[in-house]
Structure formats: structure tokens, C-alpha cells
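Protein fold
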Amino acid sequence: MVNPLETTPQTEARITAKAKELWEADGRPGCGPDAYRENASELIGMESNPDAGQIPVDSPVPLDANGQPVEEAFLEENLGNSGGSMDELDDRQEVPFATRQEEADALKNQ
């Protein structure tokens, strides 16, 4: 079995030819065919292994009937207070005050 990641002289020749072909198709820009080697290498790899990536992979998370991921309920535990007054700390204002005077008054009244 041939290793698709191993570069052979035949593969190098195909990549060089494909790079030159892509370079000529773009109108022979000043960068030369060497600038097209990466694209050519990818295209040659696709031609050599047309079935690569076609094996289905099972989803790591369960899916519902519509194919949407179903998240575990414990993920909701870290979302913080959902509203309401659960203890005395929930009644505190968590956003900045409108004015410095309001902030000073609130700190004085604590």
C-alpha cells in the first residue's frame, strides 16, 4: 500500500506539472509557478485519494429527531441566576451606577 503522505519523484513531477498548469491558467502572473505548488499538491492529493473523507463519523453528542445536538442538562447549571430573588445577594445592582452621586449614596447606605 502506498503512503499518500510520502512524496515520491512521480508525485513531485505531477505537482510541478499541475502548478505550471494552474499558473498558466491564471495568465502567468509574476509570482511564477512555484506560488501554485501548495494548491497543486492539494489537487493531486484529492485526485490520488478521491474517497478520502467519505467515511461517515458518528456524532460525539446525541442528536434529536431533527438532527440537532441535544446538550446535557448539567450544562445549564453554570448559567447563573435565572431571575428572581433566591437570597439577599440577588437584590444588589450588578451594573454600574448612572452617576457618581448615586454610587456614593449607595456605598454610604451599606
About this structure: The chain has a mean pLDDT of 80. The CA atoms of residues 73 and 79 lie 11 Å apart. The two ends are 77 Å apart (CA to CA). The helical segments are 9-25, 37-48, 100-108.
